[in-house]
């Protein structure tokens, strides 16, 4: 079977606005960052499939339910139209539960790579935290760190963090990915 190239996105602070220290569970409060839709349209045109891998520890902490998270994701897919996210997966556990699916653990990514026959060498991870960068590298992807929400703080806090690219918005991330992608061909 032919392999595909994919981009894995973090959700909060990467595709949609994040209020620091808060948990989003209300679909009405989902707001895309301005450059996201156009950037994803360009990337889709270049042949990338899209996935979201998200840590939703608010479920494990009892702040909201998986049902509410799914409602947020339905709203997100609605706002992104005509862009399609192939699949959205999330870890529902609190950090203390020490699961294998909370980023930077790679279980959710591995499952998607197998299910969709994704070629990691032609694929990317885009997120705004240390855990996102490590998740990408753990899977053999190139990692883009967004400075939209937590990225700047995490660069300062973790000087050893080595994302492959630092992007101030999704337009810049897309330009980097398209540049790399033409070098991959
Ligand atoms: Mg994030
Ligand atoms: Zn988990």
Give structural notes.
- With 185 residues, this protein is an alpha/beta fold.
- It has a domain at 8-12 and 14-19 and 27-94 and 101-149: Rossmann fold.
- Helices cover 38% and strands 15% of the residues.
- It has 7 helices and 6 strands.
- A 6-stranded parallel beta sheet has the order 3-2-1-4-5-6, sandwiched between helices.
- Helix 5 (130-138) links the parallel strand 4 and strand 5.
- Helix 1 packs parallel to helix 7.
- The longest helix is centred in the middle third of the chain and has 15 residues, at 66-80.
- The protein starts with 5 loop residues before the first strand and ends with a helix.
- The structure holds magnesium ion (MG) and zinc ion.
Q: Layout of SSEs?
A:
Layout: E1 6-9, H1 36-45, E2 49-55, H2 57-60, H3 66-80, E3 87-91, H4 107-116, E4 124-127, H5 130-138, E5 142-146, H6 151-157, E6 165-167, H7 170-184
Parallel strand pairs: 1-2, 1-4, 2-3, 4-5, 5-6
Bound molecules: magnesium ion (MG) and zinc ion.
Magnesium ion is lined by residues 10, 12-14, 127-129, 149.
Give the terminus-to-terminus CA distance. 19 Å
CATH architecture classification name of the domain at 8-12 and 14-19 and 27-94 and 101-149: 3-Layer(aba) Sandwich
Subunit organisation of the chains: single chain
Bound molecules: magnesium ion, zinc ion
Query: How many beta-strand elements?
Result: 6
CATH superfamily of the domain at 8-12 and 14-19 and 27-94 and 101-149: HAD superfamily/HAD-like
Proportion of residues in helical segments: 25-40%
Uncertain segments of ≥5 residues (pLDDT<50)? Answer: none
Shape: globular
Estimated structural class: alpha/beta
Order of helices and strands: EHEHHEHEHEHEH
Mean pLDDT: 96
With helices defined by DSSP (H or I, 4 residues minimum), what is the helix count? 7
